[in-house]
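Hi Y.,

Following your request, here is the sequence exactly as I used it, all 197 residues.
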Amino acid sequence: MGLFLFLGMPSLKETLCKNVEMNNEVLRDFMSYWHPLEITKGEFISEAGKVENYFYYVEKGVLRAYFIKDGQDRSVGFTYDGDYSGAYDSFLTRKPSLFYLEALTDCKLYRISKSDLELMYDKHKDVERWGRLFNQEILFKKGFHEINVLSYTAEERFERLLRESPHMIQLVPQKHLASYLGMSAETFSRLRKKTKL
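Below is the corresponding structure, written out as tokens. Let me know if you'd prefer a different format.
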């Protein structure tokens, strides 16, 4: 789940080609398997306990991934314009998802099914390479987030959020950001007031 750029949101085409050069024929074929989907604020595209059949690209909107523990939901990530999204572990393993993926705003998405993605991997070496590089990126970001939560104080995590993803303050409700950073809503509010946001 990558960084958001305000100037010129990347299109699905640009995002697919970000790490791998594909010739026009391969790219056209690959893109033809991504189908548009619109959902409204509050809708779910993935639910805990269900197997995820699709992987998504967010053209417009904000999605939140979370799980429920001890009666409280805990945010694990956010995706927004120009980013990929989904219960990717469930999509790959065909096991029930451990978390929910909810629209925080109305969203315009593209999605590809597991069977279609596998077909593309078998058909085009460039698409298979895209998948390999994408998986590497996901593993890196997961490790980075775990280190961030376990190794830094609440204040340091908040400062990193402001430095690396300041747009999140406007996009995501405070309670969800606090949960994502592993702190109470009160601590988040205090740190926000301290920085005069």
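The first helix runs from residue 12 to 16.

Thanks again,
Q.
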